[in-house]
Amino acid sequence: MDFTSERHLDDGVVEREFTLDDVPGILWVPGSSSAPLPLILLGHPGGLRKMYPRLMDRARQCAQLGFATATIELPGSGDRPRLADVEQARADLRQALATGEPVGEIVDRLIFPLVEQAVPEWQAALDALLSLPEVGGPVGYSGGVLAVGIRLAVVEPRIAAAGFFAGSYVPEGMFDEARRITVPLHVLLQWDDEGNDRQHALDLFDAFGSQEKTLQANMGGHTGVPKFAGDDAARFFVRHLSRRPVRS
User: Left, alpha or beta for 32 (phi > 0: left; psi -120 to 50: alpha)?
Assistant: First the structure.
């Protein structure tokens, strides 16, 4: 892991950009902390620079609760080389949605290559992050792409809790993986998400194997997540990743 920049935000959070095997990423750590901190991995749909304002807001909220956070760029997104097959699948998906054609096979072509590449990259980043003196675990995963989070929660034993955003496609073939998840889950669903099949999301939630799982559904579209929903997700991670008291 090579750190390429460091800056101190106005609330004391230290932001450090890095690259790991040519994969760009960002680490945020509360500047006032001297002890190793729990870590939350911030998932996102790709385009690190485009997503940066929202990622920084999430990181700052987590820092106030005593968490370090980190993210990496999704394969084929941002400044990373494009994946031709994935790009074609994305174009095919838009066409199928416009004409009402079945999308199952196209979703497989779009999502599985991303999952197969992204999850090992997340694991490599986790190895490097946990070697830093300021990061000590336990580890949570928060956000999307949902299929990436599912696979990571299944194969990565260091993930102690996960907060998923049910706003992206998950292949039917991954439902068996969802049944193997056992860590506590907090799932956010936007009820009127124009790009998400609501029933598919509900069926997926039912499939999750965790004994502790919460579904929070709010009215509104994909980008209309209310602030209190983010606050509820933050309290979920406080319960499972730290010993700090939870305020009602």
Answer: alpha
Q: Where do we find the tokens 């039912």?
A: 206
Instruction: Give the count of domains, the chain.
Output: 1
User: b/e for 210-239, b at 16 or more Cβ within 10 A?
Assistant: beebebbeeeeeeeebeeebbebbbebbbb
- Residue 46 predicted with pLDDT over 50: yes
Record the tokens describing residue 180, joined without a space. Answer: 């193997």
- Percent of the residues in the chain that have a pLDDT greater than 90, as a whole number: 78
* Host domain of residue 55: 2-79+118-241
> Residue written as tokens 């009602």?
248
User: pLDDT (tens digit, 9 = 90+) per residue, 98-141?
Assistant: 898 998 999 999 999 999 999 999 999 999 999 999 999 899 99
| CATH number for position 182 | 3.40.50.1820
Report the phi/psi class of residue 47: left, alpha or beta, with left for phi > 0 and alpha for psi in -120 to 50: left
